[in-house]
Amino acid sequence: MSPERTITIYGPGLLGGSLALAIQQRFPDAELRLWARRDSAAEAIRAKGIKARCLADAVAAASRASLIILCTPVETMPALAAQIAQADLPADCLITDVGSVKGSVVRALSPILGTRFIGSHPMAGSEKAGIETARADLFQNAVCLLTPIEGADTSRLRTFWQALGCRILEMTPDEHDQKVARISHLPHMMAAVTTIAALRGDPAAVACVANGFRDTTRVAGGDPGLWTGIARENRPALIGCLREASAILTELLEILSKPDDEALRRFLAEAKALRESLPAAAP
Amino acid sequence: MSPERTITIYGPGLLGGSLALAIQQRFPDAELRLWARRDSAAEAIRAKGIKARCLADAVAAASRASLIILCTPVETMPALAAQIAQADLPADCLITDVGSVKGSVVRALSPILGTRFIGSHPMAGSEKAGIETARADLFQNAVCLLTPIEGADTSRLRTFWQALGCRILEMTPDEHDQKVARISHLPHMMAAVTTIAALRGDPAAVACVANGFRDTTRVAGGDPGLWTGIARENRPALIGCLREASAILTELLEILSKPDDEALRRFLAEAKALRESLPAAAP
Predict the structure, then answer these.
(1) How many CB atoms lie within 10 A of CB A203?
(2) pLDDT tens across A140-187, in order?
(3) How, if at all, do strands B119-122 and B143-147 pair?
(4) Is the Cβ of A222 closer than 8 Å to some Cβ of chain B?
(5) Among partner residues A183, A200, A216, which is closest to B209 by beta-carbon distance?
(6) Which is the CATH superfamily of the domain at B6-171?
(7) Domain ranges, ordered by start, for chain B
(8) Contacts of B274 in chain A (CB under 8 A)
(9) Is A276 at the interface with chain B, CB within 8 A?
(10) Nearest to B242 by CA among A255, A189, A185
(11) Burial of B161 (0-12, 13-18, 19+ CB in 10 A)
(12) A129, A66, A83, A77: which is closest to A99 by C-alpha?
């Protein structure tokens, strides 16, 4: 029998809602609970076909849960963890989150929850937010990064994410934040910079856009509040990456100003080779 | 009867090959010719199911053609135009191109070909190159920018591109180059900068990538030689856009360094609003 008897998800947005849908498919015997601050969430949850008990009391939602997953903005997690710690938790209770930063989350939650908490970061999402955009296959073929502290056993959490279709990588919380600054937070900010640079001075140029612009700037459509929180929590690593990007942009401007076609060809060939080093996308 | 009796395409790559496939569907009565420098191209053309006469002689390929479309790299177009001008062209011969820059192309080709030449730029393509990647629906729902010189009648060219599924915008060659620098050449270079900034210092971070990184950097996989040519031909406009991007990146770094969460939220909200001003993507 699966150890995931009762699963509580905190925060029914895109990630929490998608998790609920995926858990319904893959763990049909588990009792599913959703904690949402607003009562109005219950209707949206039902409308997505999620069969779960909806609770607004954070302590009651955790009571006797075997698996707890925090899907709220990272800045709300410490207060939730403090409430969860007050609940009647079974001995095998496993707690995780899906936040985009791990250093600050793990440093805040581990003292409260101990080794029963292990940070997760499934690399899946969308520029769209809200439970309306949730889908059961969101985690299929995504990488899920786990950031256990010393003494934590990840085997059960690995099995859980693998059941949802994820490939697992383990690393320290700080290593996570460095890598994710590079491949998620940096591209997000660069998409915003590109969008503003392209259109602030000539909004009418939007009439000419093609797929290249759409793709390059897609994530700039993400929620400003959510991304302000992520940037705050991973500020030093993000600033480091953006300074690197600024230096590389200066390098490119120098090449173009000379102009040096051969150097430009080498610059673009370096980008192409790095781009082609990506693992093949899932079909 | 359609005026497009005999159509010659110069350069059977992604764009030329896709044009050939689309023309076969939409102008089944037209005689189709493809000019390619290499004899080996004929086999790849046949393998794509394109029924066309393949010619390696640029003058013979133009002879008695009612519509000529240049799909070669922009730097090769002036020499081709000089050869086409020597051919036996019918009075109603219409000549266009699909190059990504228009100022330099129109300035070079108009003195040779007169008002029978009108620049086109269908905003369609891919980071992949070569006739193997050609597809008949490449132009479906794309914007096609026309850049007629004074005295040129665009009605027939509009009808042609509309038959292939394009929406038409007309502007001057210089206006084209400014707008396209913003919404195509800038994003291309920013995708390259983002890719290098993310991965040059830690190539192993590639193991963590998700769809956000894939989309933001997709066009960085484009052909370095082709894009070096495009950057050369549209250098002043591109440098202007990249300097703007550099200033905006500095603005972002200052916001993050303070840090000023409210200013960051405004910055990201500006990007989101501009991103959402894009016309809806074709289904």
Answers:
(1) 12
(2) 999 999 999 999 999 999 999 999 999 999 999 999 999 999 999 999
(3) antiparallel
(4) yes
(5) A183
(6) NAD(P)-binding Rossmann-like Domain (3.40.50.720)
(7) 6-171, 176-276
(8) 195-196, 198-200, 203, 206, 220
(9) yes
(10) A255
(11) buried
(12) A77
Rounded to whole angstroms, how far apart are CA atoms A238 and A260? 31
Taking CA–CA distances from B269, the nearest residue in chain A reads A224
Backbone angles phi, psi at A40, to 5 degrees: -65, -20
Residue B6: enclosing H or E segment and its boundaries?
A: strand B6-10
Chain A neighbours among B 90-109 (CB < 8 Å)? none
Question: What CATH topology corresponds to B176-276?
Answer: 6-phosphogluconate dehydrogenase C-terminal fold (1.10.3660)
Tell me the whole-structure pTM to 2 decimals.
0.91
Q: Tokens 């040779």: give the residue.
A: B112
Quote the ipTM score: 0.91
Structure-token pair, residue B35? 């000019």
| pLDDT tier at A282, thresholds 50, 70, 90 | low
For chain B, say whether A50 makes contact (Cβ under 8 Å).
no
Same fold, B6-171 and B176-276: no
**Residues 6+ away with beta carbon under 8 Å from B18:** B124, B134, B135, B136, B138, B139
CA distance B150 to chain A (A): 22
